[in-house]
Amino acid sequence: MAKNNKVGGWAFLIGVILAVVFGFFNSTGMVWILVLLGLLIGLFNIDPKEIQTFLFAGTVLVIVGAFAGQTLSEIQYLQDIFSNLVALFGPATIIVAIKSLFGLAKN
Fold first, then answer.
1. Which of 29, 49, 55, 75 has a 20 to 30 Å separation from 85 between CA atoms?
2. Where are the domains of the chain?
3. What is the pLDDT of residues 37-82, one digit of tens each?
4. Which residues, 6 or more positions from 80, have their beta carbon under 8 angstroms from its beta carbon?
5. Which is nearest to 83 in space by CA: 22, 37, 8?
């Protein structure tokens, strides 16, 4: 993660904590907070050197999080936590992928 960007770093830390905490509460407004934090993470927290690693880890997290949420549907809190992680890292991964494509198109 970018060492000189505190906004993205704090968004990452707060987002992961909130994803877990929000797993115990159910509100659409809370999911929007995670989506906005995910956008901040994608915009401000990833250096060009880290794009490939982040895209791989983010994609795996989103896919596994979605499947784990479905598989653990019997345990509502765990399903909600995984759904929240997908809501956080989905937008971040999309933003980083778009930034990567712009970088490729620029070269």
1. 49
2. 6-106
3. 999 888 888 888 889 999 999 999 889 988 887 888 888 888 888 8
4. 22, 23, 24, 26, 69
5. 22
